[in-house]
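Aim 2, interim progress: modelling of the pyridoxal-5'-phosphate-bound target.
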Amino acid sequence: MIKADAYGVGAAVAARALVGAGARTFFTATFAEALSLRRTLGAAGRIFVLNGPEPETVARFEDIGAMPVLNSLAQIALWAGRGACAVHIDTGMNRLGLSPHEAGAAAERLAGAEVALVMSHLACASTPAHPMNAVQRARFMEAASVFPPAPRSLAASAGAQIGADFLFDMVRPGIGLYGAAGLDGDNPRLATVARVTAPILQVRDVAPGATFGYGATDAAAAPMRTAVAAIGYADGYPRAASSKGFAFHHGRRLPLLGRVSMDLLIFDASAAPEIRSGDTVELLGDEAHIDDVAAAAGTAPYEILTTLVGTVRRAQEAA
Ligand SMILES: *Cc1c(COP(=O)(O)O)cnc(C)c1O
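Predicted structure of the complex, ligand included:
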């Protein structure tokens, strides 16, 4: 899954790494992403476009060797008479996909067409014991049986970890490729894919009672050494991590003080008294694991990747 610029990591670099690791089937959200992915891949590899065809793009899929995921009877009508495609059945997300009761009509209208994949998507796979998982699996089995035999796919990253009977013929991992397992609890720690660092601009020693940043929301209880890093919410660092975030400096954890500013963060560097301006701190990486960063910001690792990693990487590429 390389939608959203491969979750902020960069679609081209991710696609090349994934091809090197043996991936041969790719999913994008949009036609524009598929077009750019095709340039990266050359002629090799299959590309499915999750959002399906639109009147403006429908005639161009075959030119670029991409297949649409057909999500509705309207998209099936739009695709009529064309080549291979995937079919998406909505089994409980109420997002994209054919409703199960439309499966019969869809299969009839696709008679003679090459259906390369029948898929659905789980709403609650991040909670392995959630009853919705089995309900969606049963709906998927039933609706998929209406179509001529084709490879089937139900699970994304989380679904791939909740039981062998969710694997079917193909899984569609996204977040799991980019460093987070995507489960709510008992999350296995995956290897780091993206690292975000920032330089320290200033170190200061403050007296008890000194307050930090806008709103003076945190104060020093004791004499304290602080370090100011050149990164903020304009770089995609979540403002919701105010007073809760952290950075690492040579293995020492530095708590974030006060509010996240636009371009600056203030850290309690008491644990790293030798810190100097010009040093680098890690905001995301091997030590600042994405699962912990997301938890501190009260968000999901998906958002940390697409927002923080995506913004920092685009800025670096533009520089
Ligand atoms: C985004 C997406 C995936 C990948 O999900 P992850 O949780 O990132 O593994 C798989 N299938 C569909 C339909 C998606 O939209």
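The first helix runs from residue 3 to 7. Residues 196-318 form a domain with the Lyase, Ornithine Decarboxylase; Chain A, domain 1 fold (CATH 2.40.37.10).
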